[in-house]
Design brief:
This protein is an alpha/beta fold. It is 28% helix and 16% strand. The strands form seven sheets. Strands 10-19-11-12-15-13-14 form a seven-stranded parallel sheet. Helix 4 links the parallel strand 5 and strand 6 (139-144).
């Protein structure tokens, strides 16, 4: 028997590190790492030890004979990866070719502890904090502008992907680490400056992500109900900066531009039976709105062809197993059919081959039932409407067409925002750096999407953080870090004196307990607090009541 890696793979390579026979590829040392959508177990080499499954932070690895339903496909997917690849030889039948011990991310034993601030508690920031706390004697200050930790794990992962959220439990063990101090609800650039933060630490790592959305630059883009898909994701995940009434789901058809994983997420949530979401941590207001939703059809606009579909194969496969939802390919453009029919085995376009094709008459309302329509070679050129979205004008094989819709979501990518006091590249939406080191600012570093742009999933941040932390530690050993101006306890006083209600690790634990307790009352894993005042009240063990 062998193991197989399944849909929820986060590619952080924890499994690679514990595999005794080097049967999981690509590894971080291989060129393909980061360019494949997931990692794969070689069935010929696997010895069924289960070490990878025990180490996986997102419960993505299972014995092949235990897979059922849609998961069974992953036995073949793992094996297919090795069909034309020869695994690297190992030193013996049961052991890794380990090589000489190396500790590139460590400090000399007699090195005085350094103080490092990590700004952002999403995956990138927490992988960096984990690296520092596990491999060095550094003291780490965790900072986030929201009064709750988690970043993309809490507010970006779809509620029907609970296994993916499991990586948050791995990070949570570092929130109360004896060498970590947490200050949530503090915004750098607003509550305190980059210079002030640097004056209290030897080094600062910015892991602020890419919270903005790319724009299309077309007429009507700013109409009511023309909204970034990322805002919809935040809405159904109870982000406190997106109000409960932000989305009106009274239209029968929604148009989403893009076909990456975010586009698939929002399409899936819109057409999923709300009863299936009732057992997740979806926002209460979103669940209520979906129960009353009139949406029956979601159109996914791909500006290029099926062979350039941006989503991962695993998410596309999973969409095909959504109960009660029909998947349809709009076959009005002959290029679409040709690309699907000519796709080779393993190409994502081939996964669309079994779907029905239909030349959709957009002048008619959606048919009965719920469905998702893939439409390729189709770019939006204008959003039409007076007081809100009424239709989307798109390119077509024979000119332009109008697709009636009451909601238009753009899922064309994230974009970083500048942090006052840091350099910023407007073209890429990132902070210029060298190996994570911010140019011209000793002791200042970046990690995650603000470093490399909005590419790669949760696990990609692990290797990204390793590079940044390695650069920081090399600078520390070289004596290139500036010394803090203030003693260690001064920063906590500074944060509290800026008039914000700061949440520490104990307060975060109180929020977690309260949300889980609310969830137990409703048969759900947790019910999130949806506003900043409610989060702060929960952190103090009290119950927040809205003003009347």
């Amino acid at each position: 028997m062998t193991y197989a890696i399944t849909q929820t793979c986060c590619s952080d390579a924890t499994c690679v590190a514990v595999c005794p026979v080097n049967c999981i590829h690509p590894t971080p040392e291989e060129q393909a790492f980061g360019s494949t959508e997931m990692l794969y177990v070689d069935p010929e080499t696997c010895i069924d030890c289960g070490a990878c499954a025990d180490a996986c932070p997102v419960d993505a690895i299972f014995p092949v004979d235990s897979l059922f339903g849609a998961q069974q496909e992953y036995a073949g997917i793992n094996a297919a990866y090795y069909a034309d690849r020869k695994p690297e030889p190992v030193a013996g039948p049961n052991f890794h070719a380990w090589g000489e011990p190396s500790f590139p991310r460590s400090l000399p034993s007699d090195f005085a502890p350094i103080r490092v601030a990590v700004v952002g508690t999403g995956p990138a920031g927490m992988y960096a904090a984990e690296d520092l706390l596990l491999h060095t004697n550094a003291e780490v200050t965790l900072i986030d502008r929201l009064p709750v930790a988690g970043g993309l794990v809490r507010y970006g992962v779809a509620p029907d992907h609970p296994a993916t959220k499991g990586v948050g439990e791995t990070f949570a063990r570092f929130h109360s680490h004896p060498r970590a101090r947490m200050h949530l609800g503090v915004e750098v650039g607003k509550d305190l400056t980059v210079e002030e933060l640097a004056a209290h630490h030897d080094a600062v790592i910015y892991a602020v992500g890419a919270s903005d959305s790319r724009r299309l630059g077309i007429p009507g883009e700013d109409l009511p109900a023309s909204i970034p898909a990322t805002s919809f994701v935040s809405w159904y995940n109870a982000h406190p900066e997106v109000p409960p009434e932000a989305f009106d789901l009274s239209a029968e058809r929604v148009v989403v531009v893009g076909n990456g994983n975010v586009a698939l997420d929002v399409a899936r949530i819109l057409v999923t039976d709300p009863a299936a979401l009732a057992g997740t941590d979806i926002a209460g207001h979103a669940l209520a709105a979906l129960r009353e939703s009139k949406v029956r059809e979601v159109v996914l606009l791909g500006r290029r062809g099926p062979d350039d579909t941006a989503c991962t194969a695993s998410e596309l496969l999973a969409l095909g197993h959504l109960p009660g939802v029909e998947l349809v390919v709009d076959g009005g453009d002959p290029r679409t059919a040709a690309a699907i029919d000519e796709a080779g085995t393993g190409d994502k376009a081939s996964l669309l081959r079994e779907l029905p094709r239909e030349t959709v008459d957009w002048s008619q309302p959606p048919p009965p039932g719920r469905r998702i329509v893939f439409r390729f070679h189709s770019s939006p050129v204008e959003v039409l409407g007076a007081d809100g979205v009424e239709a989307v004008r798109v390119t077509a094989a024979d000119g332009v067409q109008e697709i009636p819709a009451g909601l238009f979501l753009r899922a064309i990518g994230y974009r970083g925002l500048p942090v006052p006091g840091l350099p910023f590249d407007e073209a890429t939406g990132t902070v210029p750096h060298e190996g994570g080191r911010v140019a011209g600012m000793p002791g200042t570093y970046v990690v995650g999407w603000i470093k490399r742009g909005p590419s790669g999933g949760i696990g990609a941040n692990r290797t990204c953080a390793a590079e940044t932390v390695g650069t920081l530690l090399a600078d520390a050993v070289a004596g290139a870090l500036p010394s803090p101006t203030y003693p260690a306890k001064a920063f906590g006083r500074l944060a509290r004196n800026r008039g914000r209600q700061v949440v520490d690790a104990r307060g975060l634990a109180a929020i977690d307990r309260a949300e889980q307790a609310r969830g137990r009352d409703q048969g759900r894993p947790r019910v999130k607090f949806e506003t900043v005042p409610a989060l702060i009240a929960a952190s103090k063990g009290s119950r927040w009541r809205p003003a009347r």
